[in-house]
Amino acid sequence: MPALDTEQAAARQWFEHLRDLICAEFTSIEREAGSDADFEYTAWDRTEPDRPAADDTAGEFGGGVRGVMKGKVFEKVGVNVSTVAGNFEGDFARTIHGAGDNPGFFATGISLVAHMANPHAPAVHMNCRFLVTTKRWFGGGADLNPPLPYDEDTADFHATLQSACDRHDPAYYPRYRQWADDYFYIPHRQVHRGVGGIFYDHLEGDFAANLAFTQDVGRAFLDAFPRIVRRRMDTPFSPDDIAQMLAWRGRYAEFNLVYDRGTLFGLKTGGNIDAILMSLPPLATWS
User: Fold this and answer.
1) Could you tell me the maximum CA-CA distance found in the chain, to the nearest angstrom?
2) Could you tell me whether strands 104-116 and 185-186 are parallel, antiparallel, or unpaired per DSSP bridges?
3) What per-residue confidence (pLDDT) applies to 53?
4) β-strands 104-116, 123-132 pairing
5) What is the set of domains in the chain, with CATH numbers?
6) Is 192 designated active site?
7) Higher-scoring residue by pLDDT: 56, 45
8) pLDDT for position 265
9) Rounded CA gap, 126 and 52, in Å?
10) Beta strand 104-116 with 40-45: parallel, antiparallel or unpaired?
11) pLDDT digits over 137-151, tens only?
12) Could you tell me which of 53, 196, 221, 237 has the fewest CB atoms within 10 Å of its CB?
């Protein structure tokens, strides 16, 4: 991989460090539940046999590591990191901030989705990224997706994210919470995907300040979500609870396959198919 500039290297280093912190915490939860499950890591690059070789003359390079664990508490959790560069194709370039006149890009980030074995423990999504086109910006966020919502958990998750936002700008939380509500919505179902969180994009300008905010979003997720999991992972559940969980997983899959920008971005930039689709639940139902 060609040498990264100082900002690119700093963002990549943080996302990989956050991956390590999250995976260690999730593994600890499995141990507390009496499980020996662990993450299996698979490295990939853009020159794998099942995709065209990257054109080095075009500045295309990169890859990532897909981490997946299937355990007693986490029925399936994926934590991926990637760093890629290249050129957006055709009309897709015009949909990306700063790429309309020049399709070259660099992207590094972390993406996480957890589907839980106990329907009282919420599924969750978290994603943070740094992109470089003719502009440079951060984006990301986290949202909670409980099949059986608890007001206590929703309030805890939002309060922790709000605290992280307020340390940087009191306008962030209301703006980014509304952005999440607008984004994580399934129009054909006329329902939200879950109980929300925050979502932000195109955060550009002061790199150090924006990296610090993105780091605090990651730390807030690492604070709130494991606490909620420990609160719910031993709650007794019924067959009806499982049925509710599988139905909501179906809606989660619909959103990710039809509307999610990250899925489209990964497919359009030569990402690893298994890593892109790790967000899909292991089991789901549709009526």
Assistant:
1) 58
2) unpaired
3) 40
4) antiparallel
5) 6-279 (3.40.1500.10)
6) no
7) 45
8) 76
9) 29
10) unpaired
11) 999 999 999 999 999
12) 53
Confidence of residue 47 (pLDDT cuts 50, 70, 90): low
Distance (Å, rounded) from C-alpha 262 to C-alpha 259? 9
Phi–psi pair at 113, nearest 5 degrees: -140, 130
Q: What is the CA radius of gyration of the chain?
A: 19
Q: Decide: residue 51, CB within 10 A, 0-12 exposed, 13-18 middle, 19+ buried.
A: middle
Residue reference for tokens 């709000």: 162
Residue 199 near residue 184 (C-beta atoms within 8 A)? yes
pLDDT at 59 (0 to 100): 55
- How many CA atoms are closer than 13 Å to the CA of 1, on its beta-carbon side? 20
Are 23 and 16 contacting, i.e. CB atoms less than 8 angstroms apart? no
Cα→Cα distances 37→100, 173, 281, Å: 45, 35, 18
pLDDT at position 272: 78
Q: pLDDT > 70: what percent of the chain?
A: 93
Q: Please pick, among 17, 115, 120, 125, the residue that the annotation labels catalytic.
A: 125
SS3 154: helix
**How much is the pTM?**
0.90
Q: Can you tell me which residue has the tokens 């939380």?
A: 173
Q: Which is more confidently placed, 96 or 236?
A: 236
